Amino acid sequence: MRLMIVGQLEGYISAAGKIALQRGAKVIHCEDTIEALGALRNGKGADVVMCDIKQKIGQLVDDLEKERIHVPVVACGIGTDSRSAVKAIEQGAKEYIPLPPDADLIAAILEAVTEESNTMIASDPAMKQVMELAEKIAPSEATVLITGESGTGKEVMSSFIHRKSKRKDAPFIAINCAAIPENLLESELFGHEKGAFTGATARRIGKFEEANGGTLLLDEISEMHPSLQAKLLRVLQEKEITRIGNNEPVKVNVRIIATSNRNLEQSVQKGEFREDLYFRLNVVNIRLPSLRERPGDIVELAQFFTDKYAEANGVETKKISAEAENKLKAYGWRGNIRELENTMHRAILISLEKEIEAEAIHIQDSAFSQGTSSGGGEANAPDPNGVGSAGEKASNDVQNTGAVEALVGKTIADVERDMIINTLDHCLGNRTHAAKILGISIRTLRNKLNQYNDDGAAIPKAG
Ligand SMILES: Nc1ncnc2c1ncn2[C@@H]1O[C@H](COP(=O)(O)OP(=O)(O)OP(=O)(O)O)[C@@H](O)[C@H]1O
Ligand SMILES: [Mg+2]
């Protein structure tokens, strides 16, 4: 993790920096927010910025947002002056750290803000095999394409490969090709010069240069526009980039890992993804099994998330009861590990018994559920990833007819609303995850939610 400390912090800097270093972070120091902004523009990236409360935190947060530099800012100041803490949070700081720094607090905050998760649970034989392949190819320089349904762990696998590679001490930079508007993605990747386009207020280094010497994760590459795919292919072949508004190519040395939750071969066939780029990326393919294909991991993962969220919420952790285990094992987990994680987060918060009871495991058994509690197979919900098996689906259509009949009498709009709100609730209000599970774009989800909100429906808040 890379930590940027901004300001003087009255001599506490070195103490805070030292704690962070001991926890394995790389620390950069900037005198003020202007220097900090400059360093971030120049590709000296950070995973978290710790900023003295005396600095212009609001201005920094605004500038970062304007320039789409995504990094959480944490405020710190002497003592527990609650007024300045509140002010910093109001100005957009994610957290407030009182000084002098407390080692555990710094560690906890760094962890919480960056949500770094390196644990890889892989006891099921299907997953063990995948881990063996990953270990084997990690030290090579090969480009890796990681595929798998939404929530199967593509991002954690990418960082695992980086950590096991020769590049582990160099940066690991991730960019989500689906989350960045099409017209801005090119500048995010390759950088731009001041004035290259409206809004380019300063020169900015792109992710390729930031990742130099290390690994660049192109997350959800299937969503990249064909014209940019062509540019990317050229960059991979020539190993040099050109910033927008500049003609001088810059040599870059990065290892590429790409992920996709769509079937890229199908995208190639449909003409949506360039075949030459597909072959260039797919030197090694790691296909992550869905949670249904690795049932041996369900209980271990569930206990892991229970412990994790018990600790994060400051409550005692609990064992999972036998009955709850059975319920977990019988479910279809269309949203995979992420869905299991959300389910266990909720379960530890609402469980009333000594062991987590089956009732605390909230999974949907209705027609639009993501699996069948009776059959344990796939649901008849549309497959957002286009990677399900048609045969399996057909048999489940039969299993689910009872549930579908129960919907007779409702309008499609009603069913759609309930399905969207229930899914969002299940994802603890996380819109990105809900949209993925539903197989619709985040924009569509937002529009629908606005409409339901106007109609007076209760919309789950992000939490
Ligand atoms: N093997 C594992 N052991 C423990 N936790 C895991 C494992 N795999 C994934 N997770 C956790 O599951 C969640 C989803 O993983 P991740 O974000 O890597 O999935 P993804 O495939 O990239 O999902 P998406 O397609 O939605 O982007 C994360 O919180 C991650 O830490
Ligand atoms: Mg991902």
Cross-sheet strand order for the largest sheet: 2-1-3-4-5
Unreliable residue stretches? 366-401
Question: What's the count of strands?
Answer: 14
Largest beta-sheet characterization: 5 strands, parallel
The overall number of domains is 3
Bound molecules: adenosine-5'-triphosphate, magnesium ion
Average pLDDT number: 84
Question: From the coordinates shown, what is the CATH architecture of the largest domain?
Answer: 3-Layer(aba) Sandwich
General description of the model:
This protein is an alpha/beta fold. The protein has 3 domains: 2-114, 3-Layer(aba) Sandwich (Rossmann fold); 125-287, P-loop containing nucleotide triphosphate hydrolases (Rossmann fold, 3-Layer(aba) Sandwich), CATH 3.40.50.300; 292-408, Helicase, Ruva Protein, domain 3. The chain contains 20 helices and 14 strands. The strands form 4 sheets. It has a 5-stranded parallel sheet with strand order 2-1-3-4-5, with helices on both faces. The protein has a 5-stranded parallel sheet with strand order 7-10-13-6-14. Strand 3 (48-52), helix 3 (57-66) and strand 4 form a beta-alpha-beta unit. Helix 13 (298-312) packs across helix 15 (336-350) and helix 19 crosses helix 20. The longest helix has 15 residues, at 298-312. The chain is globular, with a radius of gyration of 23 Å. The two termini are 24 Å apart. 37% of the residues are buried. The model is unreliable at 366-401 (pLDDT under 50). Magnesium ion binds at residues 154-155, 219.
